[in-house]
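Researcher: Next sequence.
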Amino acid sequence: MRETVLVLVSGLLLLGSSGAQAFTPGVPTGLTGAPGEGTCADCHDNLNVGSGGVTITAQTEYAAAETVDIVVEVHHQGQVKWGFELTALDDSDQPVGQFVIVDAERTQLDIDGGNGRQYVMHTAAGTDTGVPHSSLGWLFQWVAPAGRPAVTFYIATVAGNDGSGTNGDFVYTATLSSTQTGLTDVTTWSRIKEMFQ
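Model: Next structure:
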């Protein structure tokens, strides 16, 4: 399987926002920048500006039912508190696959009862408060479905200054797309055979 590391430096990807509150233990769902969602910038400052960025490490191809490791990191010189929220959607903007928490001290899973979207996010311990310049990173897994040719991971991250408010924080967003191996070829060949039957 191919593995891709996506590094987003400020200002390369801008996604929408709407009102929400900020919480250290986790965040409200629906703040990843996915279609119809806001971002962490709904509460925090500086969306995709500054010298920092977010890194997502994951495969860009997967097999049906494969368990995929995902690692997220965020960095910004001088910041000392870190957070993130991530979801996975298919090309119809529906939730796809199943997230698995492998480090319950640093990450947690929440599901939006309204639309069924799954969200992986930091815990209070996972904010790495006091760790300068870069988060320690978060590891979790995603179990791929069968019969879905593409998935897009949407993420919003916070590089915070650990102040009493949200001024001086930086928010970085990114997306990473992945496709199911072999599915497109099989589907195309089936259609060709049907044409000549």
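Model: The helical segments are 183-195. The first strand starts at residue 3 and ends at 9.
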